[in-house]
Amino acid sequence: MLSDGTIFHGKAVGKEGSVFGEVCFNTGTTGYQEIFTDPSYFGQIMVATNAHIGNYGTLEEEVESDSIKISGLVVKNFSYEYSRPGSKSLQSFLEENNLLAICDVDTRALVSYIRDNGAMNAVISTEVDKIDELKAQLDATPDMKGLELASKVSTSEPYFFGNPDATYKIAALDLGIKRNILRNLAARDAYIKVFPYNTPLSEMEAWKPNGYFLSNGPGDPEPLENAIKVASELVERNLPTFGICLGHQVLAISQGVKTFKMFNGHRGINHPVKNLETGKGEISSQNHGFAVEKESAETNPNVEITHLHLNDGTVAGIKLKDKNIFSVQYHPEASPGPNDGTYLFDQFIANLG
Hints:
This protein is an alpha/beta fold.
């Protein structure tokens, strides 16, 4: 049930009960396990536009965090059978993570409705005789706008990733970091120390890193006061910095650039982006419900737009003029086939000197 009272019917997959969250859809044909475990999706009910979900099972190495992060799952055809050698069923994966899912939903109609009416809160429930009670709970569910969620997914204690003898040391501010980002940095001869979302720059700097990373994550960037302060100090001192997704938005806000809640957001694995510096197009993986305001970025004397989303012209990347600092809205670590964005990690490492 959507917050405006619209109801879609289906069948429960395993677990029973009710879950609430902001409904959104992802257009990827593969990568469902990565999507479900991406911390950036925390608090959201995921609608899969691909007609079949679960047909290739799950593998341990294809998770992006320590657990499923979406609130609930809506699919058309749920595959209880799976074909990949060495894999486990998606059903068992959902049960292990206590996730409520619903199948046999007319997802084409649902996605069309969300596309036309915008992202909104929703509930998945097997308690079909409590519609009025569910509607009241749904009305009380907070909107994503203004919601701080990084604290829900960030590490509580610093931890290390990679080879301690690597050439470079990178301090990462964890707003909901994906493992594949850490893998990409470690593969480029970097040792990463991941810090909780509320860590001050002084504590990160005490480790004497060569560069800093502002991670992806869920929710609205505006309430992240510490992360914005850290980004501002990094810019002020011109310390080598790379930001992705939520980190990109935090960097922009630190320079006085505005962000906004998108009508639907971008969630998929084939979004076209143009690199304005090279003139080349890139096929990208994206997952965000907030974005940097284009006019605000264009009129800011310290900011240069480096990438644009070709579907709607929204800002997909920025760099700070005369600074060793840049960020992108999309996910270069997520390579659903094309590896078009991985050069950004090479660029960051090159900036470390």
